[in-house]
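From the shared-data thread, chain only:
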Amino acid sequence: MNEALQAAPPGDVPIVILDTNALLDWRVFKDPAAQPIADAILSGRMRWIACPSMEQEWHQVWPRSYLKAWLPDPMLTLTVFQHAEFVDEPPRGPYRCKDPDDQVFIDLALHVGARWLFSKDAALLKLARRARPHDLQIMSLQAFVAGQATLSAPEGNANSASA
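Structure, as tokens:
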């Protein structure tokens, strides 16, 4: 298990945002890199926050014909948002994403104080350095699992997740 997932003290459950690519990795492609995050969400060690527009985008994307080769399980894809905590649409944040469809992910992550925004989208990944002062790490699920995620512990201590 990733050390970053074990490092959160009780009562300080880290918030995560999953973009559509991360959800595809979890529910359609069944990428093993998604499993530690999925397990953490399902066990309550991470809180996945979403808003209605994210769910709408998901239901537009996963049924697309180019994804049929992966034989997505309709029950997995239709029920994934049952594991999310829903909040209202976020206000516009300080950073502009070059892809307007992905703006909501960075806005929500900053608005709710997420620790991680998981994405493979280049436009979101380009915002990673600017998001760090907000204690937000933007990275792919694969980078997280590879041990490149860090978790700021209370009192300024940092625990590094190693591979």
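Residues 52-61 form the longest helix (10 residues).
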